[in-house]
Design a protein that fits this description.
This protein has 107 residues and is mainly α. It has a single domain, classed as Metal-sensitive repressor, helix protomer (Methane Monooxygenase Hydroxylase, Chain G, domain 1, Up-down Bundle). The chain has three helices and two strands, in the order ββααα. The chain has a two-stranded antiparallel ribbon with strand order 1-2. α1 packs antiparallel against α2 and α2 packs antiparallel against α3. The relative contact order is 0.10.
Length: 107
């Protein structure tokens, strides 16, 4: 669900940190989606276990790469802006980013 900002009486979608390179993020996710379909095909074809595990590892690294890119964008856009503006939710944005980092580290 996209957050919105009030602009007069019109609702305007909120700008996200990744908005400028949204097409590149989508392209990377479509590539990962293809990797996952390839994994399903490998299982259907009874491919050797280690080969499947190798491809799972590659897909996992690709997802982690997208996650890190989005996290960096979030830190550079959303968190930086909240802190710079002295926004009341600046502490919440920092805690949110820390929690996201913790989830990535655990995975």
């Amino acid at each position: 669900m996209a957050a919105t900002l009030m602009a007069g009486t019109d609702m305007v979608p909120a700008m996200r940190g990744y908005t400028a390179d949204k097409d590149a993020v989508q392209k990377r996710l479509r590539r990962i989606e293809g990797q996952i379909r390839g994994l399903q095909r490998m299982v259907d074809e009874d491919t050797y276990c280690i080969d499947i595990l190798t491809q799972i590892s590659a897909a996992t690294r690709a997802l982690e790469s997208v996650a890190l890119h989005l996290l960096e964008d979030h830190m550079n856009h959303c968190v930086r802006q909240a802190v710079a503006d002295g926004a009341p939710d600046a502490d919440a944005k920092m805690a949110e980013a820390a929690a996201a980092i913790a989830r990535l580290v655990r995975s």
